[in-house]
Sequence to fold (292 residues):
Amino acid sequence: MTTVNVRFPAPKDGHLTPQMKQTWDANGVLLLEGFKSEAECDALTERARHMASEADLTNAGIFASAQAAAERDEYFRASGDTVRCFLEEEAIDDNGSLLVDPVEAINKIGHAMHDLDPVFDAFSHSAKLAALAKDLGLKDARVLQSMFIFKPPRIGGEVLWHQDGTYLYTEPQSVIGFWFALDDASKENGCLWAIPGGHGETLRTRFVREGDGFVTWALDGTEFDIANSIALPARKGDMVVLHGRLPHASEYNRSDRSRHAYTLHVVDGACDYPENNWLQRHDDMPLRGFER
Ligand code: FE2
Fold:
């Protein structure tokens, strides 16, 4: 069994100590305890639940059928610079009817709340985050994507092993994921898992636009070394930093507790951003840094 310590009390000013930096370079993952306050976490969750309660789920059924792949692709494709809700697979029956309370049916909200909603904007921008991004090696940090993940009790879906660089690719590769625990996350309610050091390997796949849809390009068929994975249980307010090639995953939430989390994905503005990445913004909404 792998024993790797990647946990540190969050630096108050966001700057990494030499030991944190060394751990980051060696493992491609850090868990910074208490990065956000409980009050900040609660404000974000309350805002997301409000957005979910107001979401129009009348077309929820279209996401249930295979014939609706085109609509589903279009809904996803247009979410890069908007705010959209995505449903849990287990929240709808074969006819597309909701099986649970609408607020409990939503898997996530994405992908530009950090620019479009004041509460998310406040959570997502600070001198502390800017300092952290700089110390992680981003010369010109640009916040590309935000996701609020509900992982509701009993039906919260699993996220299969992947590298974030698959979805958000730059040349050279630069994406880093900031994952904030908004509830306590344990193995029971679907905490993160990661393979320390896996960032040193190749990017396995790229998910790209092709015509009106999307395809996944295989770059390297080597399987992830899951035997060396570790669980990353987190307390509310902790933040996990994930290198863009670090393999990570999370399991179903079969518990009675929710597992809310918020992620930001950040790229270096100095790198090339390909036009076949799934996430494309309109020109009138340029990417911002972490400064408020
Ligand atoms: Fe991810």
Notes: The domain at 7-268 is CATH 2.60.120.620 (Jelly Rolls). The chain has one domain: 7-268.
